[in-house]
Write the structure tokens for this entry.
Amino acid sequence: MSLVWCPARRPTGLGRTAPCSGSVRGISPLPRRARPVLGCVLLTAALLGCAPRPATPAVDTAAPVPAATGTPEAAAAPAPAPAVSAAAPAPADCTNGTAWSCDQQRRFAAASAYVARSGGGHGYLSAVFTDRRTGLTWRVGPTRQPGWTASTIKLAIATDLVERGRAGAITLTAADRHDLDAMLANSDEPASNRLWAKYGDDAMLARFREQFGMPGVRFVPGFSVRAYWGFVKCTSDDLAALVRHILTVTDPADRGYLVAAMRAVAPNQRWGVWAAGAGNQPGNKDGWSFESDSYGKHWVADSVGFAGPGERYVVAVMYQVDPRGTLADGVHAVSDLVALLFGQPVPAPVTVPAPDG
């Protein structure tokens, strides 16, 4: 299957794409991107609460989220949840009938306060945290708001290919397997493009929605003639559903491959869920890109994966960074949010990827 490229908006590096020249649906052409200054000034100000930002409501649900099954759509449609306070709960508050421990409730409170300080303006930061042992899910931020997936969608591509190969629908060659490895380990663009051109298009996105429980996945037209993985949006709930599907539905052999690959990512993906800490044996697929929306041109920093013994916790974080922010701001914010959820030190030690890969 051939892929029709946009001549001027081509893949340019790990986890990102370059823009088309000319206007796109009323959006002005993206300028040449300068590498962000990897400073700590903005993040430090956010952590200290120096910059006034509107609060983002934190949410929590005490009702178990259904585990992914053969019909995963149910797992991707969580019930609305009440808002919770951003203040750290006192010990007495831990007897409120939820199954979350007192320590975890305090971590949620710290994470909620962090999101309230960091999201603001046109920055949209959200997270989904699921305990697979209890079935409980906690959410913060706009988890149902579509945002650019960047390279996190490559995890869905890999899952689709290994499942179709297992079913005999396609035959993955040695070259395909090599590309799968590179796509997951390094977020390799050429490898991803080859796999998409050979096996992708709209039919793949439909399977993401119907089989993986990702109803919010959609191709954003205007950047290329045909569907392309680099021009896709979804929600953080969608990404969480994808990982639940991998850990509960995918064939054990393929699941083992995906889990091992996510635990062995290259340094350019050692952030986001990676900030859960080595003791939690995290695995993740990260995505970063420079995109354009109605509110301006901005960076994207997303991370999805698992952590804890037996991949107990599923974590998905999406950050559509405020246009005033940098890639480093996004990477640190996503990582610090995960660190708070797992009681790890903040700021989290992370590797900020190069904007051009």
